[in-house]
Specification:
By secondary structure, the protein is of the alpha+beta class. The protein has twelve helices and 17 strands. The protein is 27% helix and 33% strand.
Length: 391
Amino acid sequence: MEIRVLKEENYLESLKLSEYAFQYEVAPEDVEGRLEKLTKHHILGIYENEQELAAKLHILPLKVFIAGKEWLMGGIAGVATYPEFRRKGYVKELLIESLKVMKEKKQVVSFLHPFDISFYRKFGWEMIADIKNMTVSKNDLRRLKASNGHISRFKKEGHLVEIEEVYTKFAKAFSGTLVRDQYWWINHVYSNLTAAVYFNDSKEAEGYILYSVKNQQMEVHEFVSLNQEAKKNLWNFICQHDSMVEKVKFYLPAHDQLNYLLSQPKQDISSYPYFMGRIVDVESFLKDYPIAQTTGKVFLHVNDEFAPWNTATYLLNEGEVRTFREKAGSSCSHPPKKGLSLDINTLSAILLGYKRPLELYELGFISGPKQEAEELEQKIPVQKSLFYDFF
């Protein structure tokens, strides 16, 4: 077994493995374009017999907003193994190697879309964003009272920079949202969707939806608004499709309250875990994280089996962070009397805004004095997590 970084001459091998594992085919005329996209990826592969690609994993160099700042993020994608090479621990080895690579590249966090949540939890990734589905029947498409303005509708060929500006303003208010450049919009967001952007009377863009209409069903894949007037006007635009559709299906952030605005709030609503994330480099992350300057201090004893550089004690005190690592050759069989003990999964869920410290303390994921858990609750900014993208 040998782990290699795939070069351009290996990209076709990688594509063929993806086609086999994920059961799709790329049309011959699209192959060149797909291979071109791979030039932006860092691809790790495991070879058997020095020449046969057995398994691979992609790291996408991306950025996300957390606590209003941009952070380097390694997006894990394209994890695949040929069936004859499965159950040999190859994906485990690739994930461990990916953590080392991301640390070297200063990608302090990593996100992925799981095929099996429990599998990736073993390696330190944890749930960090949920999606809510809401289906509204034609009879409940009733317009709301709203101010004037206008809607501009277009496909990706007519991409407007205003939609990027609206998204960025919206995304900065959440934790975990992807930083999108124009390349990402064109190649990863639109697909075959239609965009509708709301402009107010001053011709300022304040919201948009990305949607499709097919077989008498409208699907709204993104609903983004900077204020309630934008939300109401976009809803009214959706209502204008009442002669074309029998129902509208929405994909919304788990905390979205669109249904509360409707004349009939009782709709078919469900939510599900969507994306996972983990902190790759705890020390670097904490040093840039906006910890509140409360008077108390908290010791965090963090365990990270697969990124051992994170296993340490971190002192959070008056907005500053200090790191204490066990000296080589020493041993400690008893947990420290002071401080909170938690694993990398739990720490990631807290710092990325998915769960609150006291919530996870009550669930048993954090051990230690409750008083210190209450202090940690005060130090961590309240955020709402959101991830709208896919890779």
